[in-house]
Inverse folding.
């Protein structure tokens, strides 16, 4: 989860701006937040499939917004300011890469690769605050309480 800032959310983004990413091998991210055009997306890579949840942010009027992605083993949920905006039923293990040894790099503001940052992707044109990575899935109520505190 993270607070994400943009001067103007309804500005059409050219290309893809990665906000947070973690490389999972095979040219894919284990998970990521990114924006294309006015579409904010979160992806989670499973062993056989990548799930993407998206939300059109063109109507956002607040400069700071709280985005969360949860996975409880049965459902992936994308929340905006503590409100569910997209979800999908899915079970299985998240792909963390071979042996989960070399694929642990988190990158903020760009796309991650095995060796660090993909310099061909666009840098994120905003700011992040209070990024949290948790080992358990919080409920929508818990996330709404956290989001209200920002």
């Amino acid at each position: 989860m993270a607070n994400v800032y943009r001067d103007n959310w309804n500005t059409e983004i050219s290309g893809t701006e990665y906000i947070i990413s973690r490389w999972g091998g095979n040219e894919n991210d284990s998970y990521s937040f990114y924006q294309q055009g006015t579409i904010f997306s979160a992806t989670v890579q499973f062993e056989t499939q990548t799930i993407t949840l998206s939300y059109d942010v063109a109507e956002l009027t607040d400069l700071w917004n709280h985005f969360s992605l949860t996975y409880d083993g049965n459902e992936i949920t994308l929340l905006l300011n503590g409100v569910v905006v997209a979800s999908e039923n899915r079970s299985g293990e998240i792909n963390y890469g071979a042996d989960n040894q070399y694929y642990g790099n988190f990158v903020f503001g760009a796309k991650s690769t095995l060796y660090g940052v993909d310099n061909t992707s666009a840098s994120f044109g905003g700011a992040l605050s209070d990024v949290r990575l948790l080992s358990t899935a919080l409920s929508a109520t818990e996330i709404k309480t956290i989001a209200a505190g920002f």
